[in-house]
UniProtKB/TrEMBL annotation:
Residues 16-118 form the Fluoroacetyl-CoA-specific thioesterase-like domain. It comes from the Bacteria. GO terms for molecular function: acyltransferase activity. Substrate binds at G62, R113. Keywords: Acyltransferase, Transferase. The keyword Acyltransferase applies. It comes from Lactococcus protaetiae. The active site is at T35, E43, H69. This is Dihydrolipoamide acyltransferase.
């Protein structure tokens, strides 16, 4: 495994549309960016940030997330989420995650992922 560097960041973006609003995903009734979709984007940013550091056959799984969704974003808004590596403890990697739309910060918090061997993990599920 390549040395995981503290402070490394990675960002992903999406546009709010009918597929990721609260009324579609069942987390509310309004046509605004859904909290579960913001969380999924935070996990995606962290997972994609960590991937280049992993060896063949390894991946990471989310094990903890603690975030707030502080501002609503309407259909058409672009949401950009950035993950930053803030701690590494053997196979656990911790991230600061923030999501913004074009106007302001909409959510923030912390996320932890655990590095696993994909095949061994799947075998344990059988």
């Amino acid at each position: 495994m390549t040395e995981i560097k503290l402070g490394t960041t990675f960002s992903v973006s999406t546009i709010v549309d009918e597929s990721n609003i609260a009324s579609t995903v069942g987390s509310g009734l309004l046509p605004i960016f859904a909290t579960p979709m913001m969380i999924a984007q935070m996990e995606k940013a962290a997972s994609e940030l960590l991937a280049p550091f992993l060896e063949k056959g390894q991946t990471s799984v989310g094990i903890k997330i603690d975030v707030s969704h502080d501002k609503a974003s309407p259909i058409g808004a672009t949401i950009t989420t950035t993950a930053k590596i803030i701690a590494v403890d053997r196979r656990q990697v911790d991230f600061e995650v923030i999501s913004k739309d074009e106007k302001s910060l909409i959510g923030k918090g912390f996320h932890s992922r655990f590095i696993i061997d994909s095949q061994k993990f799947l075998e344990k599920l059988k």
